[in-house]
Amino acid sequence: MTDRIPVTVLSGPLGAGKTTVLNHVLTADHGHEVAVVVNDMGDVNVDAEHVAQQTDLGGDEEIVELSNGCICCRLRGDMLEEVGRLADRLEFDYLLVESSGISEPIPVAQTFAMGYEDANYDPTDTYELDTMVTVVNAHSIWESFDTGTALTDHQLADESGRVPEEVLLDQIEFCDVLLLNKCDLVPDDALEEIEAVLERLQPRAEIVRTEFGDVDPTSILDTGEFDFERAQAAAGWKHELQHDHHHDPQEEHGVTSFVYQRDRPFHPERIASLLPALPAELIRAKGFFWSAGREDVAMGIDKAGTSVRAGPSGQWLATLPKAKREQFFAARPGLEDDWDDEWGDRMTRLVFIGREFDEQPLIDRLDDCVLTDAEMNDDWDAYPDPFGRSEDRRELALSSQ
Ligand SMILES: Nc1nc2c(ncn2[C@@H]2O[C@H](COP(=O)(O)OP(=O)(O)OP(=O)(O)O)[C@@H](O)[C@H]2O)c(=O)[nH]1
């Protein structure tokens, strides 16, 4: 279908400059008749119906405002109904969506690319997701590099308990274009460092520097770049974990990344006390580890800026019935190569991405958490378990500043 209306979604933390970018694009010469959906969290504590307001700007644009909730969760269906109504009511040939600062990009993209079961409107007849754009605040990232504080200005957790840094990392890792805004507030050498970090966090995205959102509209409209599967595989840490031909640290522009892999489990208490004390220069850590005594589940790590979470996150294949396991291997050739006769797939594989940090001291500290020869003979079930049981759906937050 060639006549579907392309959609560009703007994401990014509070105050990064999404509205500024939007206003810049609306007043620029792009040859489109644009409709706009703006998601403003409003006061989420007010238990009110969402507000959908139409503002006729008198020009070519129409703005629909969705407030008191987030279009990635509570307002998913409402957003679809609104964009459905827009398409019925008006003539326009481009849709711009500004998500709220805490919107997670994947569900928003899914809503446009695949529809949403609870909604009475299927967007894929009318709309085609064209470009996912994330606006980041160069100034707050620079400040965090300088002081070791959070990557975002605002620290309030969203309704699901996720902190803004975690959402920011999702927004960086799942997009086609990264607008590095507020470049006027940051010296050039710092901008180069920030860009190098962004490239490592998300190698696929095009990075564009902006001041007061002065982006060339062709960088974010009609790019045709969005592809769900590619976007989902775009995160730098996934790339490193899958292409683990190098376990040697990769260093470029002061940005270091490496994969840490060990066959023996960690001592649960030692790794639990190391995680909150990881160096501030470590911007991202992802992957899974084996905590002695938890032979039932793999523990996941999610470090995003200064926030660190660790907890039960997935089943070891070794706990599956043999037939199921073989089915799994048949679909993914090569995976069984790492299979251990005694422990199966239980092991630790972690990706670390950071700036200006020395990996060897970190590797040594991680190795100090691995069980010693003597501890390999301990009764691991007698170890305390700081990570919570697998029945807990929520991961345990070890530290979140
Ligand atoms: N110095 C500087 N200020 C900027 C720039 N871009 C935006 N601002 C200012 O930063 C503030 C926040 O910008 P917005 O566009 O409202 O940010 P937003 O991402 O839409 O924020 P929310 O709607 O709160 O999520 C405003 O006061 C802007 O004028 C920039 O490139 N440089």
TrEMBL record:
Residue span of region Disordered: 381-401
Molecular functions per Gene Ontology: hydrolase activity; nucleotide binding
Alphabetized UniProt keyword annotations: Chaperone, Hydrolase, Nucleotide-binding
Origin superkingdom: Archaea
Pfam families hit by this protein: cobW, CobW_C
Biased composition (Basic and acidic residues): 388-401
InterPro entries in alphabetical order: CobW-likC_sf, CobW-like_C, CobW/HypB/UreG_nucleotide-bd, P-loop_NTPase, Zn_Chap_cDPG_Synth
Keyword Chaperone among record annotations: yes
Reaction equation(s) it catalyzes: GTP + H2O = GDP + phosphate + H(+)
Domain CobW C-terminal positions: 255-370
Protein family per UniProt: Belongs to the SIMIBI class G3E GTPase family. ZNG1 subfamily.
Name recorded for this polypeptide: Cobalamin synthesis protein P47K
